[in-house]
């Protein structure tokens, strides 16, 4: 598997949902909530989004994602479900074996 070269000058991925928990308390004024909604995407989420964009319809398992991004699986795997809830990724019914032979969930970029 080849590691893609990420384009540092490409536009950021589309904003679908809040990539981090809101940084405003319920008691804060609306302006604080508005500002929290515009917090930039974390670099990890941007790298994961780019990897899934490059993978296209084939998608990636968490093991494949770790290999493609050059990050530890324990770093990239925990962000998959939150990215799904935010509308960035979708869990498919496809499964591919990981290094242990156990089936791994194949994730794809959300349309």
Question: Could you explain the architecture of this structure?
Answer:
The protein is an alpha+beta fold and 111 residues long. It has a domain at 41-109: Orthogonal Bundle (Arc Repressor Mutant, subunit A), CATH 1.10.10. Helix content is 34%, strand content 14%. It has 5 helices and 2 strands. The protein has helices at residues 30-36, 43-55, 62-69, 73-76, 80-85; strands at residues 89-97, 103-109. It has a two-stranded antiparallel sheet. The longest helix has 13 residues, at 43-55. The protein is elongated. The two termini are 24 Å apart.
List the helices and strands and how they pair.
Blueprint: H1 30-36, H2 43-55, H3 62-69, H4 73-76, H5 80-85, E1 89-97, E2 103-109
Antiparallel strand pairs: 1-2
């Amino acid at each position: 598997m080849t590691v893609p070269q990420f384009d540092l000058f490409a536009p950021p991925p589309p904003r679908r949902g809040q990539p981090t928990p809101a940084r405003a308390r319920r008691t804060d004024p609306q302006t604080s909530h508005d500002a929290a909604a515009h917090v930039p995407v974390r670099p990890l989420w941007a790298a994961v989004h780019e990897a899934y964009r490059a993978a296209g319809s084939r998608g990636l398992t968490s093991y494949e994602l770790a290999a493609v991004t050059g990050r530890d699986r324990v770093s990239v795997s925990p962000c998959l479900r939150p990215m799904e809830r935010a509308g960035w990724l979708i869990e498919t019914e496809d499964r591919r074996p990981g290094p242990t032979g156990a089936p791994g969930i194949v994730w794809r970029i959300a349309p």
